[in-house]
Design a protein that fits this description.
Elements lengths: L4 E2 L2 E2 L1 H20 L7 H19 L2 E14 L5 E14 L2 E9 L6 H9 L10 E2 L8 H4 L2 E11 L2 E10 L9 H6 L2 E8 L5 E8 L3 E3 L5 E16 L2 E15 L2 E18 L6
Antiparallel strand pairs: 1-2, 3-4, 3-14, 4-5, 5-6, 7-8, 8-9, 9-10, 10-12, 11-12, 12-13, 13-14
């Protein structure tokens, strides 16, 4: 176009103005976005909502089914073995109990029932555990990480804030396995922009974790995600948990995927006289 040329060559003055326009307009449009929310305010409202939800839950009985599927994997990722269990869960005023109802889609044998009753794993029994928020987190856990705002997105038609998180460098140093694991995790969380409920969390290891210098074992890969949804107005619950882990225990390697589904929810209020 001749209007953009001087003597059939690019006009230096025009190119300079165009280049300056790009430099001045584009960065300012990104950096000065007034809609970027304050991360501290998001976390404050999120924690307040978690405390409120725990208080409401203390006056309810919540029942649901928990289905766990564990896949043992070969080195190339092929499924070598699959096991599944199904539990009926009752959360009564924050105290959770579980009853085994199926093993590999079949009614459990008496031996399996007895074995499950004797098991002391909280992942299976959870007897007497009193919850303080959405199933797994409390304020102390949230505060172990630093957060940054990454994006505003849509999840199931709801507006959410996506935050990235990293372990705090000033967290208390400990050799406990849980502390070492938390200090190695990073990922993202999604928080509902209207109700400030946790919608989703994803986490992964930065590097392998070794126990006693690798003599006892190691965790070479860990990725997990938790998804939450409103199951009735004002009440959210975990609906899907997935984990992929690889490592070594003593001299044996392990590779596994785990999927946990929660469904068939029912909620009823407890009367003040209900024990």
């Amino acid at each position: 176009m001749d209007s953009l040329r001087c003597n059939r060559r690019p006009c230096p003055a025009f190119l300079l103005v165009a280049w300056l326009g790009l430099l001045l307009l584009l960065p300012r449009g990104i950096a000065a976005d007034p809609k970027v929310p304050d991360v501290d305010e998001i976390l404050r409202r999120f924690l307040a909502r978690a405390r409120e939800a725990a208080e409401v839950e203390s006056r309810q009985e919540i029942c649901y089914l928990r289905k766990t599927r564990v896949e043992q994997l070969t080195e190339d990722g092929t499924v070598r073995e699959t096991r599944s269990k199904e539990y009926a869960i009752t959360n009564r005023a924050g105290v959770v109990r579980a009853w085994l109802v199926k093993v590999d889609d079949q009614e459990p044998s008496e031996r399996e029932l007895n074995s499950d009753r004797k098991g002391d794993s909280e992942a299976r029994k959870e007897v007497g555990r009193r919850r303080k928020g959405p199933d797994f987190l409390d304020e102390a856990l949230v505060r172990r990480f630093t957060y940054r705002f990454e994006a505003e997105e849509q999840v199931d038609g709801r507006r959410v804030f996506r935050l990235g998180y990293e372990p705090r460098t000033d967290a208390a140093d400990s050799n406990a396995s849980v502390d070492r694991l938390l200090s190695a995790l990073h990922g993202q969380i999604w928080i509902d922009a209207e109700e400030f409920e946790l919608v989703k969390v994803e986490a992964r290891l930065r590097s392998a974790l070794r126990l006693l210098g690798g003599l006892v074992g190691s965790l070479n890969r860990l990725e997990f995600a938790i998804q939450r949804r409103p199951i009735e107005p004002g009440h959210w619950a975990n609906v899907l948990l997935t984990t992929h882990a690889e490592g070594r225990k003593l001299f044996s390697a392990f590779r596994a995927r785990v999927q946990v589904d929660h469904d068939a929810f029912s909620i009823r209020p407890l009367s003040p006289a209900t024990p």
